UniProtKB/TrEMBL annotation:
CDD domains: Pancreat_lipase_like. GO terms for molecular function: lipase activity; serine hydrolase activity. Residues 1-18 form the signal peptide. GO terms for cellular component: extracellular space. This is Lipase domain-containing protein. One of its GO terms (biological process) is lipid catabolic process. PANTHER family: LIPASE (PTHR11610), LIPASE DOMAIN-CONTAINING PROTEIN-RELATED (PTHR11610:SF173). Pfam families: Lipase (PF00151). Keywords: Secreted, Signal. Residues 49-344 form the Lipase domain. SUPFAM superfamilies: alpha/beta-Hydrolases. The keyword Signal applies. It comes from Arctia plantaginis. It is found in: Secreted.
Length: 370
């Protein structure tokens, strides 16, 4: 137990340092690639050790669903409603009231951004996605603020997001009862927010008998969810269409496909120009925000694996757009490469593999290390 907590503390310190120096993750060049090639397998191993027994540790610490059910009364959950000229905050329980507001556009989609661990609507992930949607001209844009409950202690946060998702689902179901078309709902979640979206979708289905239209999962959180059944995390059953972007598989994000369509830019692991894993984890919302403005910026090709992508053994007839432009009806795994600097797009050049890996990583792969 002491060993597990020590490793967890070490990771949190590492993660905090990565946030402080995240700008270093955007330093292009060989040095960044070599450092990332060394850091990546170490962090993946640490995450496997630390979070491989989440269920048992949560029960031991009283942080499982059974022991924190009193927190179902989530009175501090709020939602921000954005327009180009205003920002209105209301309690989540009051969400259905916006349908009668003159700011609400009943003929347009309802897009809700759900942030991740230690995040909130005033930080970059929400701002980037919301600003892109506003620039695009989207009408009904919301951002959930769950920071009062998932701003500390990841083990507890990974449990309580189930209740947050259910609360979000109940609020959406109330909107459906006053006329909202569930098919017009698009939930966009980053990290833990992806699983909040999943629970919200499950709840809407249970309360109304209808699925919401779409969920976009942006590098869904991996720690404490990898071994979970689909009823305890995001799954393709939670909406009519679920698309997922994987950018930090095996560390902060999940590697397994979770949606109808799963996109793996740059193998879904270390992203170009990133030295720290938190940088790769955040690239998911960066890619998505860019794709709102440039829906055709990230074409991806359907492949069975990254190895097939490298070798060109993919279905050249199956090209799909990653991010906002992803189309319902798309299914399977899709691969692409991106650039290392904003806005990251390579267009169709991204579906043809180019070896940009560093020396350490190339050697590591060749000899089967890590």
């Amino acid at each position: 137990m002491t060993h597990w907590l020590f490793l967890m503390s070490a990771l949190l310190v590492s993660s905090a340092s990565a946030n402080i120096f995240s700008s270093l993750g955007d330093v292009a060049g060989a040095a960044t690639k070599e450092v990332a090639a060394v850091i990546d397998p170490v962090e993946k191993t640490a995450m496997t050790v630390m979070f491989g027994q989440c269920k048992e540790v949560k029960q031991m610490l009283g942080l499982d669903h059974k022991n924190i059910q009193d927190d179902r009364n989530l009175t501090l959950l709020t939602v921000d409603f954005f327009t180009k000229s205003s920002r209105v905050q209301l309690k989540l329980t009051e969400l259905s009231s916006i349908t009668s507001s003159e700011l609400f556009k009943p003929k347009e989609a309802l897009i809700v951004f759900l942030h991740g661990f230690t995040d909130n609507p005033d930080k970059m992930s929400s701002k980037a996605v919301v600003d892109s949607l506003l620039k695009k001209g989207a009408g009904n844009i919301l951002a959930l603020d769950a920071s009062a409950y998932i701003d500390f202690l990841y083990l507890r946060a990974s449990t309580i997001i189930r209740f947050i998702g259910e609360a979000m689902g109940k609020a959406l179901a109330d909107m459906v009862k006053v006329g909202l078309d569930p098919a017009a709902v698009h939930l966009v979640g980053h990290s833990l927010g992806s699983h909040i979206a999943g629970f919200a979708g499950k709840t809407v289905l249970g309360l109304t008998g209808s699925r919401i239209g779409r969920i976009s999962g942006l590098d869904p959180a991996g720690p404490c969810f990898v071994e979970m059944d689909k009823s305890q995390r995001l799954s393709k059953n939670d909406a009519d269409y679920v698309d997922v972007i994987h950018t930090d598989s095996g560390v902060f994000g999940m590697e397994d496909p979770l949606g109808h369509a799963d996109y793996y830019p740059n193998r879904g692991t270390e992203q170009p120009g990133c030295m720290f894993q938190v940088c790769s984890h955040d690239r998911a919302w960066l890619y998505f925000s860019v794709s709102v403005i440039y829906p055709r910026g990230f074409p991806a090709i359907k492949c069975r694996s990254w190895k097939d992508f490298q070798e060109g053994n993919c279905d050249s007839r199956s090209i799909s757009l990653m991010g906002y432009g992803s189309q319902p009806g798309t299914e399977g795994r899709y691969y692409l490469q991106t650039a290392d600097k904003y806005p990251y797009m390579l267009s169709l050049n991204g579906v043809k593999y180019v070896d940009t890996e560093g020396i350490v990583k190339t050697f590591r792969n060749a000899v089967g290390l890590w």
